[in-house]
Amino acid sequence: MVPSPKQIESRNRIRAKGRKHYIVYTGILRWGLSMFLLTTLWNWYEEYGWHFPARGHFWLSVISGLVIWLVAGYFAGAYMWKRLFEVPRSETSIENLPR
């Protein structure tokens, strides 16, 4: 599939900002923080209902969850960058899959 001129322009703007910027903003801040918030609130709701968790459990879950999801966000951002810019499209197209 050939990208449209609009998609090419968008990719060029992303590439101009650089890999580090993409990983930080897309992987860590966008993906990692949203997953952290979603899973933390989900786990708290399952365990405590609509009540606030105990103080010790609160800080343990926040710090451990934040570290885990931010590291996962880094790897997710690096993977997305690689798929978007470094893997040739001919290798990933459906037509080239073994039959």
What secondary-structure arrangement, pairings included, does this model have?
Elements (H helix, E strand, L loop, with lengths): L4 H13 L1 H30 L6 H32 L2 H4 L7
Structural account:
By secondary structure, this protein is an all-alpha fold. It has a domain at 19-87. 80% of the residues lie in helices and 0% in strands. It contains four helices and no strands. α2 (19-48) runs antiparallel to α3 (55-86). The longest helix has 32 residues, at 55-86. The two termini are 20 Å apart. The model has no long low-confidence stretch (mean pLDDT 86).
Helical content band: over 70%
Question: Which whole number gives the mean pLDDT?
Answer: 86
Structural class: mainly alpha
Runs with pLDDT <50, length 5+? none
Helix count equals: 4
In angstroms, what separates the terminal alpha carbons? 20 Å
